What we know:
By secondary structure, this protein is an all-alpha fold. The protein has three domains: 1-48, no CATH class; 50-130; 132-167.
Amino acid sequence: MVINTDGSVSRTYPPPTRELLDSIKIIVEHAIGYNPSRGDSVTVQHVQFDRTSEHSEEDAAVRRQRQVQQIVLYSLIGVAALLVAFIAFRLISREIERRRRLREEELARQHQAMREAALRSAEEEGTDVEMSVEERARLEMQENAVNMAREHPEDVAALIRTWMMEE
């Protein structure tokens, strides 16, 4: 189907051939009981009918169909763009969160290292260092975690995997 620039369908009308007209004439003569001795005559002529209203309806249907196709196409493109934007947003926000977490962990490690260095220097100087109950519990828990990691590395790895899967 060829579409013109105005949205109508390009049509060509092939007139009937002379052989077709002659065969129609023979069919009509046999159907009416043609008798040339009585003076009967049969004439078959080609007349093209005006079908502009039918064609305009078909053209309107074709235009509607093309509009629906374009709307569906643009809708799919829009949904795909939204999906890509959503995925990009999620990836970027996860990366920002990961970097923030790494920065916080690094700061916590630095603070812990500074506390431990201060405690060691105080112990080396022989100064009586008083730790709060929370600091002692934290230090004891940290030592237990380090010892557990040395003695049972598989269990610690499984625990860390579980934590990571929960996040």
